[in-house]
Please model this.
Amino acid sequence: MTTKAILGIDAGTTAVKSVVISTAGEVLGSSRTETEISRPTHTQAEQDMLGVWDAVCFTTNKALAQAPSAKILAVSVTGQGDGAWLIDSNGNPTGPAVLWLDGRAGDRVDTWQSDGRADAVRRITGSALFSGALPVLLEELEASDPERLEASAHHLNCKDWIRFRLTGEIATDPTEASRTYIDVDTGQYSDELFTRLGQERFRRLLAPIKSSTSLAGSITSAAAKATGLPSGLPVVTGMVDTPVGGIGLGAAKPGQAYAIMGTTSFVGAVHSQKTAATDLPVITLSFDGEGQVLECFAPMNGTPNLDWARDSLGLSELSWKEIESLADTSGPGAGGVIYLPYASTSGERAPFVDTAASAGWANLSVSTKTSDMVRAVYEGLAQSLRECMDTLGIDSTTTIRLSGGGAQSDMICQIIADVSGRTIERSDDSELGARGCAALALVATRHADSVHNAMDVLMTPVRRFEPTPDVQQIYKVQSQAFRQVRDAIQPTWKTLRQLRADAHQIKDATLIQAP
Model:
């Protein structure tokens, strides 16, 4: 007896996951494998595009093997957004993908901020400029590697690259295009923006825009052999990972809000039309190409802060359960220690833009314990999310659905609830991206008449974390101190960033000269 199902592929920054989900929402098979980020310099972040495809093939075969009775109706793909994923006219990568967290274009972003081009990007696309955005990256690559740009025929975001390998078709969707050159009001590429940026020459790289719930090709014989999928199986256009995660969470209707704690953080609210002030560095995604939008902040800070802190504090041999037990001994307020979680080498993009932003602890003394410093990192990440929620105008009575790798921790969920003062709901399903993919595929294959209906069918149980009344005052004071410390040190960030670069240069020169 067969079970009708969808194969959802979720290609994040650090892992690729393939999940077989029945049309009733039951997970029948799943597989996950890590992917590697390479850093040629301290500002760069790249990924092997063929390595990502290999990870898709590996996980797809594994997931299908776990679900022998599944009759796959369609494949739907999501993945990390932004960056530059360039291929030539034969479909081969012209180099490694430059990721969203790459910082090589930081100085160029500063130039665009001063000459007005960043304002044009914000006004037309509804999204703030940052180092990993395609328009600024293309100009940066053109200056540093003109031969690569000349050889490139198409830009395909991560999920579009995977779908191209599956089908041989070039396409993208409104959510991905929102982060390039789209006019978010019309859902089409903006002639005005190309002209304003002086980048008409890059138009040739952009893929045609299709509805997220349309079909964009079918599995080729070569892809079938590599993935274990049947040849001719339809493949859905799909969405970038952040909005599809909201669909998987069941939080994609106007008035709903959700957050992600993963490699990056994320806070978003769904609206029937644009609402955010033009002076905010908001990311606005055309959710359906018909006016509904997702307005969000996507801070560069996320769980890598915890990884770095664990290693830097000499705690790398402790499990995360032991780390959280240590942080728990400090208690709410982290002994007064404040942590600024701006550890990305490309700076910060939400709720402010500063390519020189840096991380650090404040209010340390000889009485400060390691447990305080660890706890402060958890609370710093939560304070960043709270500031994003407040700045987006998300009411304190709004329940926030939470996902991402970090959300699997009860401690993180409770700290975010306590710090933000909002009820947090965590889904029991850890693969919400793939579940959101399945919802899109149900619509594309006419097994559901709308994304909202598909979302309701696939929704999983949630666990609630309520704010703890006894700690509200300390976190209110901490929130004020967090922002005051950040605002006070921000004017020094550019000098500190240059000091970091100089130190790396001296170190590299010393190593070269050493016998």
In short: The chain has a mean pLDDT of 94. The longest strand covers residues 70-79.
